[in-house]
Amino acid sequence: MRRRDFVAAIGGGVATALTRPAWSAATARIGFISGDDEKAAATFVSAMRDGLAAEGYGEPDTLMLELLYANDQLDRIPALVANVAGRTDLIVTHAAATPVVVKAQRPVPVVYEFSADPVATGIAADLAHPLFNATGITLLKAELNEKRLEFLHEIAPQLHRVAVVANPLHPGEETERAVLSAKAQRLGIHLDFFATPDGAALDRAMAAIAADPPEAIVAVSEGFIVSHRAAILDFAVTRRIPVISGWAVMAQSGALLTYGPRLVESYRRTAYFAARILKGAKPADLPIEQPTVLDLVINLRSARALGLTIPNVLLARADEVIE
Fold first, then answer.
1. Which residues contact 152 (CB under 8 A, 6 or more apart)?
2. Would you tell me which of 25, 171, 193, 246 could form a disulfide with 221, CB atoms 3.0–4.6 Å apart?
3. CA nearest 115: which of 320, 288, 319?
């Protein structure tokens, strides 16, 4: 087992600062822009604060944070950038807001955390060459899909048919699909892909899967899939279909296993980039990072409900076992 702030006023969906903070010249001034609401972004904000504190930036003496939320209305984000950019040294952003913030007109640099591929999104030439005066973390590491399938194969070596639900609008999905396909072929597993860019497509995918059930489901982790995890996992549980995925929250919600980045560590890492830029580094000189801290999470409750036995060698490798 593993084991306030300048909150923006939300009126008509656009956040505007309630109070102009009294910043001193020695204070690092950081604006945070989220496409989510305050509650959904809370884990990221907490981790970012912790990371900044470790870098020597703490409120109120050496850090002032202004937090702005678009409440899932991404078309509002350019206004938020314009609202905060003129009085900050740096903007931090995350998730779906990233490409909008990065490509917006602004006089200050940006640090981001992004689950998709910065190159496919057009905000980097490659990981070593970020563009638009912005850099940060990408959670996308397509090769991890190989290990996820390997783990599934260790648990159920007789398995030969797997459904994959993935959002085709997520930049980098094509690469993940290619990696999955190549690994599945080597393991003798047939994959059926279901594109799920929205709720209606997800409903159609689940209807097709119900009509001809596979032996397992791979849910490719990104924002849409994670936000719809309850529907996906409830569907799978009622049909006794194991689900594997990438982010621990999926296993914590009922998936059989997940293998992927420890999100809080990646969130904290944005502070490293912020500190370097605040001290004079240029974003173009800071290569985009991929996660290095990975977690294997196994849900034993789900395994028992599915009648599956997790090999001891796999349990020994797990960073978290949900009893």
1. 159, 162, 216, 218, 242, 244, 256, 257
2. 246
3. 288
Q: Which long-range contacts (CB under 8 A, 24 or more apart) does 299-303 make?
A: 299/251, 299/252, 299/254, 299/255, 299/256, 299/257, 302/237, 302/242, 302/251, 302/254, 302/255, 302/256, 303/155, 303/242, 303/256
Q: pLDDT per residue over 83-128, tens digit each?
A: 999 999 999 999 999 999 999 999 999 999 999 999 999 999 999 9
320/323 Cα distance (integer angstroms): 9
Which CATH number among 3.40.50.2300, 3.40.50.300, 3.90.25.10, 3.50.50.60 corresponds to the domain 6-138+263-285?
A: 3.40.50.2300
Q: What is the pLDDT of residue 26?
A: 64
- Asked whether the CA dihedral 56, 289, 258, 200 is positive or negative, the reply is positive
Residues of the chain with CATH 3.40.50.2300: 6-138+263-285, 144-261+294-322
Q: What is the mean pLDDT of the chain?
A: 92
- DSSP secondary structure letter of residue 133: T
